[in-house]
Amino acid sequence: MTELAFIHVAVGVIVNSSNEVLISLRPAQSHQGGLWEFPGGKLEAGEDALCALRREFAEELGIDVQNCFPLKKIKHHYADKSVVLDVWQITEYRGTPRGREGQAIEWRAIQNLNEADFPAANAGIIRTLNLPAEIAITPDVANFAELTQLIQRLLSQNLRIIQFRQKKLDGHTYLEWFEWAQAQCLLAGTKLMFNQDMAISLQAKALDYHASSQRLMSLKKRPIDQNLLFSASCHTLEELKHAETLEADFVFLSPVADTKKYTRERILGWQAFRELANQASVPVYALGGVSRNDLITARAHGGSGIAGISTFAGTPL
Length: 317
Known about the structure:
With 317 residues, the protein is of the alpha/beta class. The protein has helices at residues 49-61, 123-129, 144-155, 171-188, 198-201, 213-218, 237-245, 269-277, 295-300, 310-313, and strands at residues 7-14, 20-25, 36-37, 40-42, 64-77, 82-94, 105-109, 134-137, 161-164, 191-194, 209-211, 230-234, 250-253, 284-286, 305-308. It has an eight-stranded parallel sheet. A four-stranded mixed sheet has the order 4-1-6-5, sandwiched between helices.
């Protein structure tokens, strides 16, 4: 099916200070009628996604969108039509939302969003909204005893996603240590993401996967099923756009601030982070020289959250 066959829809996500998201009820007579949705509508002829988003929110909800950034693009095939959802996160608006077309609206807690209540294309939005604000990356450890201490320290912080990065291990040892750490994480309700060669990952059970920037650019398609998390490391716009094409669930964009790993010339800074993040429709986490104190700053610059090694593990970068 060609891109022209898709109906292009602009969708807006507003999350309030109580971690509730604004949703509206589709009219019973419409496509997927009677289900809840994230507000938005089809692009008109000659209209771009941002203009459509602002128009739809003014017409449907009576609010003026001030600031927003691209969050995700989702393609979905229904039995009778195919859509591409151009999803934006709205961070600032004027006015009080109300159903100007008679539709019911409500603020619903993100943890209470049920995919069955929404059109199937919205499932990807719900999964994105449920991503955590913080993601930890493991530092290299010297031995298994250090690994056990590290995993315990990370799990004590109630982290929901940990990327298992051990660059000095051979494939066999990495897999052995990963499977032990994954068992500990499962007991704590935490996802542990595999970060090694895909050939090694095939020896394990179905798992969430992180690709280095080099592995990312070698991939021609998404390497794992949609029901598993796929993330990637990015440093350039080319890498961000490739991750978007592969339908990555989120990416790390680095280095944002000073670290020992990178020269000053390679540091992005928050303005360049914003410019890059706003050109790709994929959730972006700030990485490199950031701390938990930078979460608000990251979100103000179009990020979904922060990621790090030392900020969670307490070891030098």
